[in-house]
Every structure is written in C-alpha cells, then in structure tokens.
Fold:
Amino acid sequence: MKGFLHKISTAGLSVVMASTMLLASSMFAAEYTLESAKGSPATLDANDAIWAKAKEVSVPLSETPYKPNNYKGITKTTAVLKSVHDDKNIYIKLQYDDPTMSTNREPWIKQADGTWKKMKDVDETKHENTYYEDKAAFFWNINTKGFEKKGCAIACHMAKDGMNNGISDTSPGRKYTRAAGETIDMWHWKSVRTGLSTGMTDDQYVNSNTDPKVSKDWGRSGDEKLGGGDKANVNADKTAPEFMSKNPDKTKTWILEEDKVPFVDTFKAGDMVPGIVVGKLSGSRGDIETNASWANGKWTLVMKRALVTTHPKSAEQDVQFSDLKKPYFFGVSVFDNSAINHMYHDGSIELLFK
Structure:
C-alpha cells in the first residue's frame, strides 16, 4: 500500500511539474508570431508575387525610450511584417506609416555671408532629432537569457540622474547584454547611410561591454567588415565640406565614396552639400541586402540575408537560422528622423519557418 501511494504521489508530482513548466512556457510566449513561407522572390521588389503567399502580422510600436525636448516626429506606428525563405536565404518585408521621408542628415548649407554651416539641432542629451534620417532595426536573439520574455528591452539600460551602470553618461540609454558571452544580432537599416544609398542594412550586434574606452557605443558594435561604411564630410578645421560629388544631385543627401571629389566652392547662398560620405559595406557587416522605398506616407523595406553565415565570428555576431524546425525570437523598432529615439514594442516576436 505504501509503495502504491508513493507511486501515486510521484505521478502526481510529475503532473504538477509538467503543468508548471507548461504554464511558465505559455507565460513567456511571444505575443506575436511571424510565419516564414517557403518560396523565393525573383527580386527584392516589394511587389513581387511571392509576398501574396506570406501571412501578415501587425505589431503596434507605441513605446519610446525617452522624450527629447525638440522631437517633432511621430510617437507611434505599426510594423507590418511578412517573411519568406528558400534553401539559402531568408527575406523579411517591413512596412510602416511615417508621414515624412527624412533623409536630410546633417547637411552643409552655404550662408549669405559666404560661410558654410553644418545643420544641427541637438536635444538635451546632445542627440539629433531634426537634421537626421529615418531608420529601422531588428534585434535577433542569439543566446541572451530573458529575451523571449522582454524582447529588445533586455539589452536597453536607461540612465538615471546622469549615471548608467555606475558610469557618468549624457546619453539617455545604452545597449548591452547582462552577462558576458550573451549577444544579440542587430540589423540596423539607415535610410541615408545604408538604405537608399547602397541598398544595404548595417549588420551589427550587441554584447555585454559597458566600458566606453573599449567602445564608445558600449555594447553595440558593427560586425567585422572588409570595406565600406560612412564618414562625416567635414574638412580639417571643421568649417566646410571636405568633398562634393562629381555628379551633383539635389535629391541625394549623401555622397558615394566612388563619386567624391575634393570640395571646390562654386556654390551660391542656400545651396546644400551632403554631410556624409558612404561606401557599400562588405564582409560580415555587409550580409544584408535591402530594397527600400517611401511613398504616400509609408516606408517599405525588403531585406535578404543568408540563413546561415560563415564569417569567422558569425557564431557570436549573427543569428543562425540553421534549424528550421525551431522558433527564433526578435524585436523591431523604427526611428522617425532621430539618432536614438525610436518606437518599439514590449516583449518579443516569434519567427516560425513553414
């Protein structure tokens, strides 16, 4: 009898433990699920017929990390997501409403007295919200504990009374993971520096670094690159541009590396020269091809990346979609003409391959 009761007790305990684990799992489940359908787009055109096969998921973005004193952008929008994949690549389509196309990133404007002025209007934290660019970002969990529950917020650490992690800091917040060895893959699309100019998204990652001497951006770093990137277009004494484009175009607010020539001032008052020189990223940092367009108050992005990357540091810098039977968790945010202020969602989004 005693053995029988022991068996019942043990069985009951197993049921309770299983139920508890199931409950805990459901408590931490992502609120949104994006299903990636099998198929390949012929191009990165957002109107490719393949997108009709993909299910759409809408994620409200209504949270912001802080309220800049000079911010005039939107404070909420909705990320509309779709995904497809083939045997080699994953494709992500993102659409969201933004009434303004912001690409005028810190340009130079010639003044009436003949001098040049680099346009800036920073907020109380010394970050730009006026002369900047629209951006979007995806955070993909690699091995960071708690990401499934908290999403991007797991690596977002806000300053309090001018201090962050015991260090004096003017930035309203910093990105870093909580434990050594934990990393997050960050796909950072920048309309001027990577998107419209070179058809790319900047492939970055977040680790646990909190030493500004190691990295001025603390835990956020770019993947290893072989070439490309962006550089401020400013001369040695910071009074005028260093370069101009050999093919001037008033609609472009950037200068391509291959088009830059030394600056010669033949301009008239009110003329603009871009404040940034950009080159197409290569190496691990250039993994993500992107087609982007803005029309009728809406941004549309289509991203393409290999399911599995094979760079020397891919394991720590890139999410690896190596097992299409398991879920992957991510978060998404968008920036309206702002350096760091952005709109995001609580929790994470689950990606499932179908």
